[in-house]
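HOLO CASE FILE
Compound: heme C
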Amino acid sequence: MKNIILPFIFASILFSQIDYESEIQPIFDVHCTHCHVYGGAATLNMSSYEGVMSGGVSGPAIIAGDHVNSLLYSRITLPVGTDGSMPPNNPLSQSEIDLIVQWINEGALLSISNVAVLPRKIYLHQNYPNPFNPITLIRYDLSEDAFVNITIYDMLGNVIKTLVNGSRTAGSNTVEWNATDTKNETVSAGLYVFAIQSGELKQTKKMLLVK
Ligand code: HEC
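Model generated. Tokens follow.
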């Protein structure tokens, strides 16, 4: 009997998986989200799986399969009172930390049914018209609502103008550029670079202003 049951228990421990929504998000909701909301502390939004996986100012907070190198793990295990220990004054219990460790090492998935999380995507279209004088339209697609920055640079990399810097909704969005710089002065003819950045995602294209 023992010989049959033991391997079974061992296997079920090995394969018991942590469910993010019912086991991990509640820990973050109690201990983290009053500071870590959208646009909150360190721009790490812990109110959703996507937010946690997008990381904060220092980059990814979770490295799937590797709790030791996950920033979130190192912060929740710093001794209380140490600079940067999270949450700043009320440490998580060991069992909460253990759950997070297991979840990270299992691959930091959203769901035990292993539903693939669609990767976040952005797409920057070529401006239209191009070449242009003096107005052109820049279209960009977002796979989900996101914080977006769109900036025009000259060929030396100097910032000419920031056209968008804020939250935009999923889908196709358009922004206009009228060939002026930050001082609203018309820039000279030539090649310009336009770049879209959202989190770690970035794309650039070139356009030609003619006079
Ligand atoms: C009282 C507010 C507060 C609470 C509660 C809190 N944090 Fe923070 N957290 C901060 C602040 C402020 C920073 C930015 C300063 C720093 O990096 O120490 C930060 C930074 C972080 C960072 C670094 C992010 C980066 O990209 O640099 C991580 C990871 C983190 N917190 C995780 C957590 C976790 C996990 C919890 C809950 C278990 C939590 N925090 C609870 C305020 C808080």
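CASE NOTES: Residues 19-105 form one domain. The chain has two domains: 19-105, 122-209.
CLOSED: yes
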